[in-house]
């Protein structure tokens, strides 16, 4: 029997993990999809299919193989040598992404309330550190509640913006290719693949361990459908809203907040808190994947590691403006993530061939 509470909680945590600074601020939708105009919709469909496939494969492997660390995961899918290399690359990149997250939090509070960047980044650092101290299960409880709430509010803002600017959608889609928009990929066909590749170093560390906590294969299949479909729908709505208002949002550090300000200036300021929480829901599990690799929860080493990683991310958050920092780091992670995607596909194909040979 399907445990729907578990399915919805894990789906919510998965959503929360994906809606970090890039999604919550609108920078991912701008750089990966809106920059390619109408082709961005096809890229999102590709993204949806690949997110569902990878989520299912990773959770199933975690449940069947008892993969306890991200190194176990990468060794399982990528082999002993590439697996170890990807493990260490992922550790370094997760810290870099955490710096991007804190920079996004700082940019959000600065744009909304004029709060100095170091204060905004510091507040996010403290919240993430406090949550990391709770451990995986408590963290999933928090993220499972916050994730769907943030998606819903983001969809509401984007939908309100669409209702006011829908007549400009066609012109905006055409105009997007003429504007100097920071672009994550040179061609729209790569956008969906690279976006999923961007998520894989993180989700490949988290989802197998989450899958190990799930009761049945059917629960895993439902999570692999519900989570990606919801994120795909949300991204489609955000893309449409951004294209319909492209000239007024493409240069904003926080495009989603620019949309909210266009709908209702007061609501734009309130929505900054939503974006801030969206960043929190991703930076926390990302850093957990590193901390859990080197230390057991509820130990002194774990707490010191949490503190050290948070401080490192905080210092990195002030290196560059948020949009430039994201454009510098995220696409490179996406291309490396494609190696993980290819390894998962090859592993699944080999397993399928092996099963077919055992059938009389």
Low-confidence parts: none
Distance between the termini: 30 Å
What share of the residues does DSSP label as strand, in percent?
under 5%
Report the count of strand segments. Answer: 0
Q: N-to-C SSE series? A: HHHHHHHHHHHHHHHH
Mean pLDDT comes to 82
Number of helices: 16
Largest sheet descriptor: none
Secondary-structure-based class equals mainly alpha
Q: What's the gyration radius in Å?
A: 20 Å
Helix content, binned percent? over 70%
Mass-distribution shape? globular
Explained architecture:
With 360 residues, the protein is an all-alpha fold. Helix content is 83%, strand content 0%. The protein has 16 helices and no strands. The chain has helices at residues 4-18, 21-25, 27-33, 39-65, 70-78, 80-113, 117-132, 136-165, 169-175, 188-211, 217-244, 246-249, 255-263, 265-294, 300-316, 322-358. Helix 5 crosses helix 10 and helix 7 (117-132) runs antiparallel to helix 15 (300-316). It is globular, with a radius of gyration of 20 Å. The two termini are 30 Å apart.
